């Protein structure tokens, strides 16, 4: 597997406080990675940096085989280059059907003319059905998105992001507020999605992380404290001390 995202020596301070401190780690192509760490460890700030929302004071963030510097790109350009982000709260168009939400999200030419003369093709409808199957919403395609359960809305939003065909998908606490059955289905969706792209999941729920069954990066005070399997990192004394607040 080749490297898709390379973060090296990244630091960022807010009012003199180093939220990210010489952070370095890599994500490979088609990899599922969990990022954990106590409150304030820098998980959200890392995602803000990778998506161009926050600019670090130093370091490099390189993406893809051409090693594009994400630090020189706008948020829109980074999204176009293939970095998608799922925030904690779902933001689907509640008045639109599941089908239309997915259709609107499909990656396509967004010039004013193409939008004006857009006609739904059978090919697009097929893509929407394939996405719906991927997120377990095939039976819900005609429903208004506002009628979906919290878990179903989260899956729909994941489907809308997948419709953009990102190479790297960043997902913030996908299991929050979900039932056990919904969490299990979310695991399946993320594991499947990570077969064809990199998926980075920030999550507090350790049971959920265990089910992802992937490499884990533990952040603490803006740096990597430990990395490896969940069993490996949770038996690390530094990690134990940090989680127990010692
Ligand atoms: N815009 C900002 N201005 C000032 N301080 C900030 C800003 N963004 C983050 N911080 C601080 O940087 C540190 C890292 O925050 P961050 O949100 O990245 O942590 P986190 O690991 O995502 O935490 P949580 O698990 O609680 O979401 C925290 O101490 C936070 O208060």
Automatic annotation (TrEMBL):
InterPro entries: ABC_AA/LPS_Transport (IPR051120), ABC_transporter-like_ATP-bd (IPR003439), ABC_transptr_urea_ATP-bd_UrtD (IPR017781), P-loop_NTPase (IPR027417)
Regions crossing the membrane: none
Lineage: Bacteria, Pseudomonadati, Pseudomonadota, Alphaproteobacteria, Rhodobacterales
Taxonomic superkingdom: Bacteria
Name of the molecule in the record: Urea ABC transporter ATP-binding protein UrtD
GO cellular component: plasma membrane
PROSITE patterns attached to this UniProt entry: ABC_TRANSPORTER_2 (PS50893)
GO molecular function terms noted in the UniProt entry: ATP binding; ATP hydrolysis activity
UniProt xrefs under Pfam families: ABC_tran (PF00005)
Organism: Falsihalocynthiibacter arcticus
All residue ranges annotated as the ABC transporter domain in the record: 5-246
Gene3D superfamilies found in the cross-reference section: P-loop containing nucleotide triphosphate hydrolases
Record's keyword terms, sorted: ATP-binding, Nucleotide-binding, Transport
């Amino acid at each position: 597997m080749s490297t898709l995202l390379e973060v090296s020596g990244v630091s960022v301070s807010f009012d003199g406080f180093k939220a990210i401190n010489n952070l370095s780690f890599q994500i490979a192509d088609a990899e599922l990675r969990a990022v954990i760490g106590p409150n304030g460890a820098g998980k959200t700030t890392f995602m803000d940096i990778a998506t161009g929302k926050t600019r670090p004071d130093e370091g490099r963030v390189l993406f893809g085989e051409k090693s594009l510097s994400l630090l020189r790109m706008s948020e829109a350009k980074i999204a176009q280059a293939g970095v998608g982000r799922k925030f904690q709260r779902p933001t689907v168009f509640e008045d639109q059907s599941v089908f239309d939400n997915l259709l609107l999200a499909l990656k396509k030419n967004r010039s004013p003319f193409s939008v004006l003369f857009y006609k739904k093709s059978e090919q697009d409808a097929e893509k929407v059905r394939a996405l719906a199957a991927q997120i377990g919403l095939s039976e819900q395609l005609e429903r208004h998105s506002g009628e979906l359960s919290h878990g179903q809305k989260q899956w729909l939003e994941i489907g809308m992001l997948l419709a953009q065909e990102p190479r790297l998908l960043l997902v913030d606490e996908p299991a929050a507020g979900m039932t056990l059955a919904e969490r299990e289905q979310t695991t399946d969706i993320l594991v499947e999605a990570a077969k064809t792209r990199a998926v980075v999941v920030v999550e507090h729920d350790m049971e959920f992380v265990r089910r992802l069954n992937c490499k884990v990066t533990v952040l603490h005070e803006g740096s990597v404290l430990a990395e490896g399997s969940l069993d490996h990192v949770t038996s690390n004394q530094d990690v134990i001390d940090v989680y127990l607040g010692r």
